[in-house]
């Protein structure tokens, strides 16, 4: 008699979503005394509150647009008829563009103004949407180039805009710190929202309705372009490249603390990029059937929870400097990826490790933003951010090429290198903690 083995698709327990929501609620609302002054217990001027609401709304809209392109992942490539090798080639093209073009977009933003770069972000999204609706398959390689540029712009331009506007409104540093974690919180929530929006748009038939997602992305891009064009007034930039290069050399290249911060950022960026390339293949290894669409919100919910922990580490809450607690956070993240790289894991444990990793990332992102405010002048902030990510893009590109063309690198090996990058970031923070004591505190009032 034959034996029938029923396959079961693994899904996370629904209680996980409830736990993440309640934990975030407790972290935000029930412990307001974590800082002397925060976004919930003081009354900033009406102009700043208006700016805060409008900025977070626009940033959330932009995050939804970024997330829409990642909702269906490999399925969209398969829809175009691409095989696995072509998908990896598309990734290589994207990281090559990020390395050779995206690395200099921050400098361009500092020179010509952040408004122009944000408009370019929306126009590229609109262009990709129109190309996919009109051309279909031939547009996939062009789409990879454009979306890589949008990701590069997204990684720095909105933060630099927010910093400039914050200073223009004359707000205190604690308001800026609140904006850092709120950006991470809303970004993660918007990525989850993009998944919901994408699934709602296709209405259960991906093959038939996938083009409707591009229509939604085009509409969102048009709305954002209209808003930025009419509702965002920015003083014209008159910085000459010669003056900028002198300033960049004086305040960035000549400061060993910024070199350490840049190296830490590059290490973390490499590790996160490697994670997002490998997490799905790791989960479904050995033919396991898993509902990836339900694991994705778990990780982003963990990231939201981690971002709400950032105010706990501000002055007046815990007696830890930013560089000091980041050492421990990076060690935890590196240990998590080391476990993933070392051995086969049961799915439940694997997803738990992924959630811990993202909870740490939720704390790391606003912490890095705060460190940049401490060490990097606003005039060169964009250039510092993008140029510091160039080594990470180069490393990911090299590993992907070795994986695609030569089959030299296994997934576990790349995960191990990602863990090593996080341990390196911990070392950078440890040294920066010592060197950072030389910082002139009165200038930044932190």
UniProtKB/TrEMBL annotation:
InterPro entries cross-referenced by the UniProt entry: MFS_trans_sf (IPR036259), MOT2/MFSD5 (IPR008509)
Residue ranges of the TM segments: 15-34, 55-75, 87-108, 141-158, 179-200, 212-232, 258-279, 294-313, 325-342, 348-371, 383-406, 412-432
Highest taxon in the source lineage: Eukaryota
Gene Ontology molecular function: any one: molybdate ion transmembrane transporter activity
Protein keywords: Membrane, Transmembrane, Transmembrane helix
Gene Ontology cellular component list: membrane
Ubl conjugation in keyword set: no
Family affiliation: Belongs to the major facilitator superfamily. Phosphate:H(+) symporter (TC 2.A.1.9) family.
PANTHER family, alphabetized: MOLYBDATE-ANION TRANSPORTER, SAM (S-ADENOSYL METHIONINE) TRANSPORTER
Name of protein: Major facilitator superfamily domain-containing protein 5-like
Lineage per the UniProt record: Eukaryota, Viridiplantae, Streptophyta, Embryophyta, Tracheophyta
């Amino acid at each position: 008699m034959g034996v029938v083995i029923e396959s079961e698709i693994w899904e996370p327990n629904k209680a996980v979503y409830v736990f993440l929501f309640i934990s975030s609620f407790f972290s935000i609302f029930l412990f307001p005394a974590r800082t002397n002054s925060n976004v919930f217990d003081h009354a900033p001027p009406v102009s700043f509150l208006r700016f805060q609401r409008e900025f977070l709304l626009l940033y959330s809209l932009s995050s939804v647009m970024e997330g829409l392109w990642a909702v269906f992942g490999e399925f969209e490539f398969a829809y175009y008829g691409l095989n696995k090798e072509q998908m990896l080639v598309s990734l290589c093209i994207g990281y090559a563009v990020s390395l050779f073009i995206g690395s200099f977009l921050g400098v361009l933003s500092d020179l010509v103004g952040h408004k122009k770069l944000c408009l370019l972000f929306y126009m590229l999204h609109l262009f990709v949407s129109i190309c996919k609706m009109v051309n279909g398959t031939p547009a996939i390689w062009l789409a990879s180039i454009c979306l890589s540029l949008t990701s590069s712009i997204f990684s720095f331009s909105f933060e630099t805009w927010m910093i400039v506007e914050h200073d223009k409104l004359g707000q205190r540093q604690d308001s800026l710190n609140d904006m850092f974690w709120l950006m991470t919180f809303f970004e993660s929530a918007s990525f989850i929202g993009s998944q919901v929006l994408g699934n709602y748009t296709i209405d259960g038939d991906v093959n038939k309705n996938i083009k409707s997602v591009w229509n939604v992305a085009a509409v969102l891009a048009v709305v954002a372009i209209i808003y930025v064009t009419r509702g965002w007034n920015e003083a014209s930039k008159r910085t000459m490249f010669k003056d900028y290069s002198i300033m960049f050399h004086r305040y960035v290249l000549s400061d060993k603390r910024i070199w350490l911060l840049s190296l830490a950022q590059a290490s973390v960026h490499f590790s996160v990029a490697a994670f997002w390339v490998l997490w799905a293949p790791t989960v479904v290894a050995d033919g396991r059937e898993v509902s990836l669409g339900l694991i994705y919100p778990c990780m982003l919910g963990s990231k939201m929870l981690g971002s709400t922990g950032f105010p706990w580490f501000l002055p007046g809450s815990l007696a830890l400097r930013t560089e000091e607690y980041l050492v421990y956070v990076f060690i935890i993240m590196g240990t998590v990826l080391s476990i993933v790289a070392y051995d086969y894991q049961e799915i439940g444990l694997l997803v738990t490790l992924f959630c811990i990793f993202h909870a740490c990332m939720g704390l790391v992102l606003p912490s890095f933003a705060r460190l940049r405010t401490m060490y990097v002048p606003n005039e060169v902030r964009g250039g510092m951010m993008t140029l510091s990510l160039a080594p990470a893009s180069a490393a990911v590109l090299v590993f992907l090429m070795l994986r695609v063309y030569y089959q030299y690198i296994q997934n576990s090996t790349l995960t191990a290198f990602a863990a090593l990058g996080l341990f390196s970031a911990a070392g950078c923070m440890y040294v920066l903690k010592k060197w950072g004591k030389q910082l002139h505190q009165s200038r930044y009032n932190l």
